[in-house]
Design a protein that fits this description.
The structure holds 2 protein chains of 2 kinds. Chain A is mostly beta strands. Chain A has strands at about 5, 10-15, 20-25, 30-35, 45-50, 55, 65, 75-80, 85-95, 105, 110-114. Helix content of chain B is about 0%, strand content about 55%. In chain B, the strands form 2 sheets. In chain B, strands 2, 4, 5, 9, 10 and 11 form a 6-stranded mixed beta sheet that branches. Chain B has no helices and 11 strands. Classes of the chains: A mainly beta, B mainly beta.
């Protein structure tokens, strides 16, 4: 299994541009998450999904959109990039959200908005 | 007040030392406590998991939870240079959507 994969690894965007961060998992996990990590800060949840067709907002959803058309894929969309969205983005997945089920993280996408 | 507080460090110790990493929290509903290890330019990976209060040991790592004080710790014995990483505490409640809440992470360097 490849686990959780993310593309691209690094991207530079200009203010106002849009892009989609891709996330795919091959573990047949129902639950998927998008986090952002700013320097010296922990991970903050942007959006999560409990299954295909079902998504919900996390702690910092403004400026982002998600969709979940399949179990495997959970893309994150930035419509109008702003410097405040410069961050490292991590996608994660888990079989369930109950009890001790661990979240498996992808390698991250580094985004720089100039 | 942040729900989870963690000293960001950085923390630098010599090889072989005992390392203590700590987090405090304010939400008494948290029941599940985790420590993630994150190497530079990598995603976090689960290191230790503890439910409610008590200790859990796994090799050189020991996780402690004191719910009465809202305080959790991770101890690393006989620290190795390969332990150099950022350590993130995370916790979640048994209620609702059980979203993980992370601390800021502590950057640890073990010097040979």
């Amino acid at each position: 299994n490849a686990g959780v994969t993310q593309t691209p690894k690094f991207r530079i965007l200009k203010i106002g541009q849009s892009m989609t961060l891709q996330c795919t998992q091959d573990m047949n996990h129902n639950y998927m998450y998008w986090y952002r990590q700013d320097p010296g800060m922990g991970l903050k949840l942007i959006y999560y999904s409990v299954g295909a067709g079902i998504t919900d907002k996390g702690e910092v959803p403004n400026g982002y959109n998600v969709s979940r058309s399949t179990t495997e894929d959970f893309p994150l969309r930035l419509e109008l990039a702003a410097p405040s969205q410069t961050s490292v983005y991590f996608c994660a997945s888990s079989y369930s959200i109950w009890t001790q089920e661990t979240q498996y993280f992808g390698p991250g996408t580094r985004l720089l908005v100039l | 007040q942040k729900e989870v507080e963690q000293d960001p460090g950085p923390l630098s110790v010599p090889e072989g030392a005992i390392v203590s990493l700590n987090c405090t929290y304010s939400n008494s509903a948290f029941q599940y406590f985790m420590w993630y290890r994150q190497y530079s330019r990598k995603g976090p990976e689960l290191l230790m998991y503890t439910y409610s209060s008590g200790n859990k040991e796994d090799g050189r790592f020991t996780a402690q939870v004191d719910k009465s004080s809202k305080y959790i710790s991770l101890f690393i014995r006989d620290s190795q240079p390969s332990d150099s990483a950022t350590y993130l505490c995370a916790m979640k409640s048994i209620q609702g959507a059980q979203k993980l809440v992370f601390g800021q992470g502590t950057r640890l360097t073990i010097n040979p």
